[in-house]
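pasting Stealth protein CR3 conserved region 3 domain-containing protein for the record, 701 residues
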Amino acid sequence: MATRSLYLYKPLGGKQPSWRDLLYNPIRCTAILLIVALSLTSIGFLTIQRPWGSELSPNTFSSVPEQSELEFDVEQPEEHEVEVEAEIDEPAPEPDIIDGTVYHSFFAPSADETLADQTVRPIRAHRSLSDECLDKWVSTGRWQDPCRHSMVHESQIDLVYVWVNGSDPLHQKARQGLLMATKYKTKEARFREHDELRYSLRAARNATATWPNSTWHLVTADVAAPTTSDSDRRLGLVPQWLDIECAFYGCPDPETQPPIRLQHDTQLFRLTGRPGATLDAGDATDWLSKILPSFNSHAVESQLPHLDPAIVSDTIVAFNDDQFMLLPLPPSAFHTTLYGPVFRMDPNLLVGGDSSGKADGGGEWRSLGWSAHLLNQRFGTRKRPYMHHNARALSVPLMHEVSLAFGEYFAATPLSQFRGSHKVANEYEVNTIFISTHYVIERHREALLWSWIVAKWGGHAGTLDRDQKKKMWEELGGNGDTLRLEQAERRTFEDVEVNLLMAGLQPPRAVDSQKQGDTTYSWVSMDGYSASFHSLAKRVEMRRDCIGESPEQAWDMFRRVLTSDTGCGDNIIAALIHNDQAGLDVFLPAPSPESPRLSSSDPIILPLELPADAPPLPRNLRAFAVRLLMRYAYVLGDSPTIFMGMKSVRQTERMLTSTDQNKEAALLCINDDLEYNAKQAEAVLKKWFQQRWPQKLSCEL
Ligand SMILES: *[C@@H]1O[C@H](CO)[C@@H](O)[C@H](O)[C@H]1NC(C)=O
Ligand SMILES: *[C@@H]1O[C@H](CO)[C@@H](O)[C@H](O)[C@H]1NC(C)=O
Ligand SMILES: *[C@@H]1O[C@H](CO)[C@@H](O)[C@H](O)[C@H]1NC(C)=O
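structre below
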C-alpha cells in the first residue's frame, strides 16, 4: 500500500497541485489543456474573477453581467493558463491511508466560505447567442437565420454521482456513533454497496462516448480524520478501485474516458437564507454545527446547486450509483441549447402539497409533499408529477437559482442528518430533484404570463383599462362571454428534428433503437404550458371573468392568474397557443426599433419572490422576455427504461435475464429491496455486471 500511495500521490515539481490546478497543469495535461484553452477560456477566468451579475436583492430584478465580461476572450487563450496557474494557490490535497483504505484528505471550508454565492447566474451557452437569433427562435420556433449553424454545439454535459461506501469502516463508525447519540433508526440497505458505481461508470463511458468535453464528478461522503489534532481536516471516501492520480490529475486518455473529479460532501455545503437576508460567518458556524456529519442523501443533493461553476458544466446528469445507461445516448437525450433540459417524469404519479410532515420520512414522500407545498405557495396549488427515479438532467445555474428562491428551506434540509430524522414543522427536507425540475416548469409558465400581461399589454404604463381588457379577450379568441377553441394545429413536434439538424445537433430519436437509446420529446415548452404535463389541451373553454372587465394593474392581474386563479392562467396560455401554429410570438410585446440593447443594468430574471407592487420594468421588454423564456425552456421526454427492485435471489436472476433480452432499454435502475440472502443476490448481480461491462475504465486499478 505504501508504494502504491507513493506512486499515486507523487507531487509534481515539489508542489502538490490541487485538482483545480491540475486542470490547467501544462506538463501533465497537454490534452486537457487543449480542451481548456479552446473551449473553457471563460471558465479559466471564472476561477479568478467570477464575473457573474450584480448582487441580487429579493424584490428587484437581477442584472446581466457587463457585456464585456459575458464575451469569451478568444484571442489570448495561452495567457489565461499562465494567469490561472499563478493566481490559484489552494492547499494541496493530501492522501491518507488508514488500515489499508485510501482516503482523499482535505480541509473543510471556513465559515466564510460556507456562505452561499447570492448572485443569479446566466446560462453560459445562451451568452454566445445574439438577441436577434433568440428573438427569431423564440418567436417562430424555427432555427433559421440569423441563427447560424455554428452558434450552438452539442451540449457539454457532466455526470455527477453522489456516492457513499456504507461499508467503509470510518464511515460506519461515524454513522453508528451518531445513531447512538440520536437514537434514530435507519434502513441499512440504504448504505449497502454492491460495487455498482464501478459498473455504472463503465456503462457511462460506453453510452456517452460522443459527448464533447464531458467531466465526471464523484461527490462522496467524508469523515473526520481520526489521527489528527486539526479538527478541520477531513477524509473523503474514495472508491478503492479508482486510481486517484488519474482522478486528481484529470488527464486520463481523453479519447476513451472523461476526467474524474472527486468532491466531498463537506466541501459542498453552503448556507442560504430567505431571499434578501444577510448572513454572516456566525450563522454559518452555527448551521454547520447542526448539520455535520451528514448521512442523508437528500441533504447532499440539496447542496448540488453549489457545485462550483468553474469546474462543473451548466448541464449535469445526476446519477445514483444504482443507475445505468444501457445504450449510447446522444446529448440531446438530456439537453440541447435550443430546447433546454429533458425531464423524465411520470404524469400518472402525482404529488400534492403536504406541509404536515406526516408522510414517511424514511423514504421520499415527506420531502416530496413538502416540496410540492413550497411550490404551491409560490406558484399556485396543483398536483405535479413525480420525477422518474433515473438519470436526471439538471441545470446547475437554475438549481442555484432555486436554492436562493427557497433559501431558508434548502438550509433546513440538512438539519436531518439522517433521512427524515429532523421532524420539526417547516424544517422538513426539500426534494431537490423534484423542486428544481418543477421550478423550471413554473418559471417558464410565469415568464409566459408576465410577457403577455405585463410586458405586452401593461407595457410601460403598467395599467390595463377596459378597452385593453376587451382587446386582450379578443386576442384570446373570446366571443361575448365565453371562449371555446378546438384542436390546436401546432407544428412544434414536426419541427424538432429539422431544427436540431439545422443547428448541427444530433436529434434524440434513434434510427436503430438497438444501437442507440431512443428518446421521445413528449412535451416541448415551445408549446407553452401543459396542465396535464404531457400534451396540448384538446380544447380550451373559458369565461370572460378570467380576464375581467374592470381596470386593473397589469402586475396584479399577472399575480392573480399566476398563483390564485391558476386555471385562468393555464387557459390564457392554452388559448394563445391554439391561435398560432408555432413559436411564442403572440406572448411577446411588439418589437420596437428604439428599444435599447440589453445591458448590465437590465435584469436577467423576474424577482425570486414576487413583491406586491410591480418592480421597475427592464428597458427592452421584448429582448428581456425572450431571454427569460429561453432561460427556462425545457422538454418532457421518455426513453425506454427498466426499473428493478431486487427482492430475492431468483427474482434478481429473472429480472437480469429479461434486461438482457430487452435490446431497446436505454436506462436501468436496480434498487436494493433485499430483506435476506443479500450475499447471494449480490453474487448474482456482480456476475451480471462483469459480463455486461467487462472492460475496465482507464482509471481503474
Ligand atoms: C471540446 O473538445 C474537443 C476535442 O475533443 C475540442 O475540439 C473542442 O474545441 C472542445 N470544446 C468544446 C466547447 O466543445
Ligand atoms: C459499447 O459497447 C458495445 C457492446 O459491448 C460495443 O460494441 C461498442 O463498441 C461500445 N462502444 C464504445 C464507444 O465503447
Ligand atoms: C467499501 O468499503 C469496504 C470496506 O472497507 C471495502 O472492502 C470496499 O472495497 C469498498 N468499496 C469501494 C468501492 O471502495
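Residues 1-58, 64-92 have pLDDT under 50 and may be disordered.
The longest helix spans residues 432-458.
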